[in-house]
Design brief:
Layout: H1 2-5, E1 9-14, H2 20-28, E2 38-43, E3 55-59, H3 66-69, E4 78-80, E5 84-87, E6 90-93, E7 97-105, E8 108-117, H4 124-130, E9 139-143, E10 148-153, H5 192-202, H6 215-230, E11 234-235, E12 243-250, E13 255-266, E14 277-283, H7 306-324, E15 332-338, H8 346-353, E16 363-369, E17 380-383, H9 391-402, E18 406-409, H10 418-423, E19 428-432, H11 451-470, H12 480-483, E20 496-497, E21 500-502, E22 511-516, H13 521-525, E23 532-536, E24 539-540, H14 543-551, E25 559-566, E26 569-576, E27 578-579
Parallel strand pairs: 1-2, 1-3, 3-8, 14-15, 14-16, 16-19, 17-18
Antiparallel strand pairs: 4-5, 5-6, 7-8, 7-9, 9-10, 11-13, 12-13, 13-15, 17-19, 20-27, 21-22, 22-23, 23-24, 23-25, 25-26
Helix pairs in contact: 5-7, 5-11, 6-7, 7-11, 9-11
C-alpha cells in the first residue's frame, strides 16, 4: 500500500458503469492528490491494458481489470470468489466489508497495483481518510460505516530471487541441527489439571446437568461461592452474601424456581477508577435432563454440560484466584457466574436490571466466557468485537504479548450473556473455543475437555480483564448492529434442526457450515464443511441470527428447500426438518 501512496504518478481506474460509488470516488480521490503524488482518473473502458510505468488503483468490485490482476493465488493463501475473499483462512465477505488488496506490478516490481472494494457506500470517506496510515500492509479488510479495521496482513515472500522452495523436490537440508531443550521454561500461569478438576465437579452426574431450578444447580452455585470465598474475594450479592437471588418460571414443570447469580468483588485501588467495574463472567447452568431446547431424542437424558459451560466457570474461578493474589487492580473487577442463561439470558438480564455494586453506567466493559473447553489447534475466538472500536486492537495486542492466536468475530453478539450488556449500551465480548457435534448433547462430557486449550483461554481472558481494569479511556460503542443483531434471547422457541453446525467466524452473506451432524437432514442433503447456506425455502439466510429466525417458523416434519454454494457452484436439495 505504501508503494502506491509513495509513487509520483498513479493511475486510478474506475468502473465504466456509472454509479453513486463511482462519483463518490471521483470526489474522494482529491484527498490523495498532492504535487508529489499525481493521480490520473480513467474508466476501465478508456484503456485496454494497465500502463507499465506507474502504480495503479483499481476501484470498485465490478472493475473489469480486477479479475485479471486479483484472482485466487494459492502461493499467497488468497481465494477470491463472487461472495468475498478468503485470506490465510479468514473469510472476508464483500457484503458489509471494504477490502484493499495490493501486490507488485507485474511489469515493474518497484511499482504496485491495488484493488479497493467498498460496502457500504458510507464507508468510503472514512476509508479514504484511514488508508494512508496502513502503508506497510499488503491487504486490509474493514467493516461497517466507520469503517473499522477487522483484518490486515502482509503477503508471504514468494518471488524473491533469494528464496528457494525445496518442498517436494526431495532434497535434503544442507545442515540438520539437533533439537536442544531450552535452558529454562517459564511455569504456566494456569494448571490444566486444576481447570479440569473444576469441570469434573461441575459436570459430574451428581450435579444433574445443572438444570433449571435443580438441586444440582444449587450445589454448583455453592461450589463457586466457596471458591470465591477461599480466594478472599468480597461478596457482591444481596445483603452481604455472594448470591443475587431472583425467581423465574421454567423447567420441565414450567413453574417458578429460585435462581442465583454468584457475584464476587475485587476492589480497585485507583481513586479515579475504582468506582467503575470491569466484569468477568460465565454462566453455570445447563440443560439438566433436556430443558430447554434439547434435541428430541435426548429429552430425559442427562446433559453434563462440560464444555457448555463448566469450562467457562472453571476459567472464571482460576482467574479470580490468580487476580485476588496479586496487588489490587486500578479499576474494580467483578466476577459473576450467571444462572438461567440457557433459558434466555435470565441471570444476566436480571443483573443488568439490578446491577451490583454500581449502576449500569458504571460498568466499563464485559469479558464473558462461554464454551471454551474444546480449543484444540484453533485460535481463541472473540465474538462481538464490533461492540466497541477498541476490541480488535485489544485482542491483537494480547496475541502479540501471549503468543496465543485470537480471531476477532464482529457479529454473533446474541450468542451468550454479553448480549444483555450490549443491549444496555455496555461493550462486551464472548471468548469462545467453537461449537461441535456435542453441543447441547448428552455427550458433552468432561473426558473431552482440552485442558491445555483452557490454559490458553485463561491466558487471553486474564490479559483482557487486566486491560479493562487498567485503561483510563472508556471504550467507545461503535456499532448499533452489535446491539440489534438478533431479537432478545427467549423471544421465540426454535423447534427444529437441519443438523448444520455454523461457523461463528463467518460474517456472511449466508451461513458457512463448520460441520454436519451424522444422520441429519444436512448430511442427507449432501452438505459438507465449508458450504455456504444461502436460502431456506426461498428466503435469504442472513447470518446465524437470521437462520435461527427462519427455523423458528417451522415444525418437525416440514419439508424445506435448502440452497447453498460450494466453491462458487450452487447446489440445492429438499429435506425434512427434524425435532431439535
Amino acid at each position: 500500500i505504501g508503494q502506491i501512496f509513495g509513487a509520483s504518478e498513479v493511475l486510478a481506474v474506475l468502473p465504466s458503469e456509472p454509479s453513486a460509488e463511482t462519483e463518490a470516488w471521483r470526489s474522494a480521490l482529491g484527498a490523495w492528490q498532492s504535487p508529489a503524488n499525481r493521480i490520473t482518473i480513467v474508466t476501465d473502458r478508456e484503456i485496454r491494458k494497465l500502463p507499465a510505468d506507474r502504480s495503479v488503483w483499481l476501484l470498485g468490485r465490478q472493475n473489469r481489470f480486477a479479475a485479471k490482476y486479483f484472482g485466487s493465488d494459492p502461493a499467497l493463501g488468497l481465494d477470491v470468489s463472487s461472495s468475498g475473499v478468503r485470506i490465510a483462512g479468514s473469510e472476508l465477505p464483500f457484503a458489509g466489508h471494504s477490502h484493499v488488496l495490493t501486490h507488485r506490478h507485474p511489469d515493474d516490481p518497484k511499482l504496485a497495483i491495488g484493488w479497493i472494494t467498498v460496502d457500504p457506500a458510507a464507508a468510503l470517506q472514512g476509508l479514504v481518510r484511514k488508508l494512508p496510515h496502513y502503508g506497510k500492509y499488503s491487504w486490509l479488510a474493514f467493516a461497517g460505516d466507520e469503517p473499522a479495521n477487522v483484518a490486515k496482513g502482509e503477503w508471504p515472500t514468494s518471488d524473491s530471487p533469494l528464496l528457494v522452495n525445496l518442498q517436494g523436490k526431495g532434497l535434503p537440508a544442507a545442515i540438520v541441527l539437533p533439537k536442544r531443550a531450552p535452558l529454562a521454561e517459564p511455569p504456566a500461569a494456569y494448571s490444566a489439571e486444576q481447570l479440569r478438576q473444576h469441570v469434573d465437579f461441575l459436570a459430574a452426574p451428581e450435579r444433574e446437568g445443572r438444570g433449571f431450578g435443580s438441586a444440582g444447580l444449587d450445589a454448583a452455585g455453592e461450589y463457586i461461592k466457596e471458591q470465591f470465598a477461599a480466594a478472599k474475594l468480597q461478596p457482591g450479592g444481596d445483603k452481604g452474601s455472594y448470591f443475587q437471588t431472583f425467581t423465574a418460571k421454567g423447567g420441565v414443570d414450567n413453574s417458578e424456581h429460585q435462581l442465583r447469580n454468584v457475584i464476587a468483588i475485587l476492589p480497585g485501588s485507583d481513586p479515579k477508577l475504582k468506582a467503575e467495574v470491569a466484569l468477568l463472567t460465565a454462566h453455570y447452568d445447563h440443560l439438566g435432563f433436556g430443558w430447554p431446547g434439547a434435541r428430541a431424542d435426548a429429552v430425559g437424558k442427562l446433559h453434563p454440560g462440560a464444555d457448555d459451560n463448566a469450562s467457562g466457570v472453571a476459567v472464571l474461578i482460576e482467574i479470580a484466584k490468580q487476580l485476588a493474589a496479586r496487588p489490587a487492580p486500578p479499576r474494580t473487577i467483578v466476577f459473576i457466574a450467571f444462572s438461567g442463561e440457557e433459558a434466555g439470558l435470565l441471570g444476566s438480564r436480571y443483573y443488568v436490571s439490578h446491577p451490583l455494586p454500581v449502576p449500569v453506567s458504571g460498568i466499563f466493559g464485559v469479558i464473558n466466557m462461554d464454551t471454551v473447553g474444546r480449543l484444540g489447534d484453533q485460535p481463541v475466538s472473540v465474538i462481538a468485537t464490533e461492540s466497541a472500536r477498541e476490541w480488535p486492537f485489544v485482542f491483537r495486542g494480547i496475541t502479540a504479548v501471549t503468543g496465543v492466536p485470537t480471531r476477532n468475530i464482529p457479529g454473533a453478539a446474541e450468542s451468550s450473556d454479553q448480549k444483555a450488556f450490549i443491549d444496555a449500551g455496555v461493550p462486551g465480548v464472548q471468548i469462545f473455543s467453537g461449537a461441535g457435534l456435542d453441543y447441547h448433547r448428552p455427550t458433552d462430557t468432561p473426558d473431552k475437555i482440552d485442558g491445555a486449550g483452557m490454559v490458553k483461554v485463561a491466558t487471553v481472558a486474564t490479559e483482557a480483564i487486566d486491560y479493562l481494569a487498567s485503561t483510563e479511556k472508556r471504550l467507545s460503542v461503535s456499532s448499533p448492529s452489535a446491539r440489534t443483531a438478533a431479537p432478545p434471547a427467549g423471544s421465540g422457541s426454535r423447534r427444529v434442526s437441519v443438523g448444520a453446525i455454523p461457523d461463528f467466524a463467518f460474517q456472511g452473506p449466508g451461513l458457512r457450515i463448520d460441520g454436519v451432524v451424522p444422520g441429519s437432514p444436512a448430511e442427507k442433503a449432501g452438505m459438507q464443511t465449508g458450504d455456504i447456506l444461502t436460502h431456506l425455502n426461498g428466503s435469504e439466510v442472513k447470518g446465524l441470527g437470521g437462520f435461527n429466525e427462519l427455523l423458528k417458523k417451522l415444525a418437525p416434519g416440514d419439508e424445506v428447500e435448502l440452497r447453498w454454494t460450494r466453491a462458487g457452484a450452487e447446489k440445492k436439495a429438499t429435506v425434512t426438518v427434524v425435532a431439535r
